[in-house]
Every structure is written in C-alpha cells, then in structure tokens.
C-alpha cells in the first residue's frame, strides 16, 4: 500500500490527464438530454392514452 503522500501525488497526476468538456459541449449535451426526455415523456403519454382508450372501449 502506498503512503498518503505518494497516493496524493498519483491522484494529482491522474487529474491532470482529464479532458474537461467545453462550455459549448456541456450546453449542447444538456439540451440534447432535455429534448430526448421531453420526446420520451410525450411518447409514453401517448401510448398510455391509447392503452387507456382501448381498455375503456373493452369495458363499455
């Protein structure tokens, strides 16, 4: 097991290798995630509505 100073040195070295996303990339991916979440919500709402209509038609 490495001593704490060596461990912290290795952590600092690894953190230096990280490639952070640009602001544009963060905004773009956030917009894409929100858009896909809205599309999925609309899709499942429509599917639920159609199933609900079908079940009501069967029992009326």
TrEMBL record:
Database matches in Pfam families: SecE
Gene Ontology terms for molecular function: protein transmembrane transporter activity
Keyword tags: Cell inner membrane, Cell membrane, Membrane, Protein transport, Translocation, Transmembrane, Transmembrane helix, Transport
Membrane topology: Single-pass membrane protein
Major location category of this protein: membrane
Gene3D superfamilies, alphabetized: Preprotein translocase secy subunit (1.20.5.1030)
A GO cellular-component term linked to this record: plasma membrane
Transmembrane segments: 26-51
Record flagged with keyword Membrane: yes
Cell compartment(s), UniProt: Cell inner membrane; Membrane
Entry-linked InterPro entries: SecE_bac, SecE_sf, Translocase_SecE/Sec61-g
GO biological process: intracellular protein transmembrane transport; protein secretion; protein targeting; protein transport by the Sec complex
Subunit structure: Component of the Sec protein translocase complex. Heterotrimer consisting of SecY, SecE and SecG subunits. The heterotrimers can form oligomers, although 1 heterotrimer is thought to be able to translocate proteins. Interacts with the ribosome. Interacts with SecDF, and other proteins may be involved. Interacts with SecA.
Function as written in the Swiss-Prot or TrEMBL entry: Essential subunit of the Sec protein translocation channel SecYEG. Clamps together the 2 halves of SecY. May contact the channel plug during translocation.
PANTHER family: PROTEIN TRANSLOCASE SUBUNIT SECE (PTHR33910)
Family per record: Belongs to the SecE/SEC61-gamma family.
Protein name: Protein translocase subunit SecE
Organism: Rhodobacter capsulatus (strain ATCC BAA-309 / NBRC 16581 / SB1003)
């Amino acid at each position: 097991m490495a001593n704490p100073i060596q461990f912290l040195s290795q952590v600092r070295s690894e953190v230096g290798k990280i490639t952070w996303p640009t602001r544009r990339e963060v905004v773009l991916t956030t917009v894409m995630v929100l858009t896909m979440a809205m599309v999925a919500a609309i899709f499942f709402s429509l599917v639920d509505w159609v199933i609900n209509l079908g079940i009501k038609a069967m029992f009326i």
